[in-house]
Amino acid sequence: TGGKDRRSGLILTIPLCLEQTSMDELSVTLDYLLSIPSEKCKARGFTVIVDGRKSQWNVVKTVVLMLQNVVPAEVSLVCVVKPDEFWDKKVTHFCFWKEKDRLGFEVILVSANKLTRYIEPCQLTEDFGGTLTYDHMDWLNKRLVFEKFTKESTSLLDELAQINNGSDKGTQQEKERSIDLNFLPSVDPETVLQTGHELLSELQQRRFNGSDGGVSWSPMDDELLAQPQVMKLLDSLREQYTRYQEVCRQRSKRTQLEEIQQKVMQVVNWLEGPGSEQLRTQWGIGDSIRASQALQQKHEEIESQHSEWFAVYVELNQQIAALLNAGDEEDLVELKALQQQLSDVCYRQASQLEFRQNLLQAALEFHGVAQDLSQQLDGLLGMLCVDVAPADGASIQQTLKLLEEKLKSVDLGLQGLREKGQSLLDQISNQASWAYGKDVTIENKENVDHIQGVMEDMQLRKQRCEDMVDVRRLKMLQMVQLFKCEEDAAQAVEWLSELLDALLKTHTRLGDDAQETKVLLEKHRKFVDVAQSTYDYGRQLLQATVVLCQSLRCTSRSSGDTLPRLNRVWKQFTVTSEERVHRLETAVAFHSSAEKILQDCPEHPEAFSEEEQFDEIEAVGKSLLDRLTVPVVYPDGSEQYFGSPSDMASAAEHIREKMKLVSLKKQQLRQPEATTPES
Hints:
With 679 residues, the chain is mainly alpha-helical. It folds into three domains: 3-134, CATH 3.40.525.10; 278-477, Methane Monooxygenase Hydroxylase, Chain G, domain 1 (Up-down Bundle), CATH 1.20.58.60; 507-670, Methane Monooxygenase Hydroxylase, Chain G, domain 1 (Up-down Bundle). Helices cover 72% and strands 4% of the residues. The protein has helices at 23-34, 39-43, 57-70, 100-103, 136-168, 172-181, 189-209, 221-280, 289-326, 329-385, 393-429, 441-505, 514-552, 559-599, 611-629, 645-678; strands at residues 10-15, 46-51, 75-81, 106-110, 632-633, 639-640. A four-stranded parallel beta sheet has the order 1-2-3-4. A hairpin with a 5-residue loop joins strand 5 and strand 6 (639-640). Helix 9 runs antiparallel to helix 10 and helix 15 (611-629) runs antiparallel to helix 16. The longest helix has 65 residues, at 441-505. It is rod-shaped.
């Protein structure tokens, strides 16, 4: 109960009851209770109170005798509290005091109210008339908690010590084996520590706060002993648990590091193994757009597989960076080495994938340009293979322009093909730099030969087309010249027809006198010269068309009709011109003769004595008048008049007026001859 006798020895109270008491259980209980105090407390001895008020004498005697075997050295006094109705003297005939030497301690029989003679009231509980506060159930519960904590903490300390010592000794394999076998304690250290802290807090609170009634509660020796035990166990637990947490942290870090290392090696082994092998088998660039697209699709599948491992690389890199930021110097070198190895392999593989993708893209562009150029050459060749049959020179010029544009487009396409091909060849030449020692000469030679073969083939096709374009250009230029000659010849015919029409419609005047008529005659000769030049120009053009047709091996479509038209118009113009010349010459003769007669002086009448002069003038005038009324008859039988009827009437009237003047002159000259004989 915590009570003490006058020698400061602990008081041990054994309450007996009416029921049968098991001596074995009582012996075990006494052993347990006597194991609680310290050795110092045990040295001061014990005072045992055997409460026999509710028990039989035989039981009491047995208990007292049992104390001899259980705690003979520690017991100094045994107080047997007798009931109010004392046992029968026969029963109590056994005198304990006589057996003091044999028992080893003094035994007294005492009533409960007289127990204070031997023990102070403050050290006795209320059951014996004392004032000591004691709650046995509370003590029992606290003791059970203490025992449980002691047991669990001791077991836990052994386990933690084994785990911690296993992590400090032995080889790495033994360390891992011991940690693996006993890595998790049988109880939760946090729970045990919490229980210990709660128990220690309760013990300390009872020590300093006192009991419920406000009466100071004397500390129990067992509790005073329990507090340092609990504190010592807690300190040991905290120390071992801290070491255990460090072991767990190291183990977790090592496990994490091993997992990272394992994953890193998985990524590295795959990238340097199957991943690199996939790239080693992909060297071709294809011989067409479809083949290059198929290779690109295959490469995308390879990239898809690599992407999964690159995702693992990103995750591992983040984990390694987190560990590096944690700042554990002992793992920095290993982590940096892993990170460097992983980054080198991944970046090298990513570079290879990117290089391969760029190579295939360049090959696809090269084949695309080659296909476009091939189609352009096919279109140009098809255009050259079709015979030219244009309708006129403008269509020929348009066709020639289209031909030149196509040839220029082919030149640009071939230049683009060379640029793409050279770029592709440059990339292929760098392909061996990441081949991991593999001989790629054969594969590269096939690719290089293919690229050069495509460019040479396109160059030859383009050269053939250029030669054909040169021939076609010459032919088309000749055809342009042919059409130009035919058009100019037709124009010459039109000009000659216009000259003929102008001759007939506007060249109608014959002049009012000989001088004017001579001027008209001179103008007419110049007019004829112009017509002659036009006719000669047309003939030359038609001769040129014949030569061009022979060169082009074709039949002119218009020269066969133009030449007869030209000759027909020229003959009509010649006939008309001759008629015009004849009329003008007749008019000159008429005007000259008439003007000579009309201008001669009358003092010389002998000059006009001959009648035939007047008759000749009259005949010429009549002949000229007759010609003005006669149409021009062409070789084909057609007829055409000069000018309009009014024009011809005006010219005829002028001639008649002059003929009248000549007739009057003639009459004047005749009058003197008639008057002379009469006179």
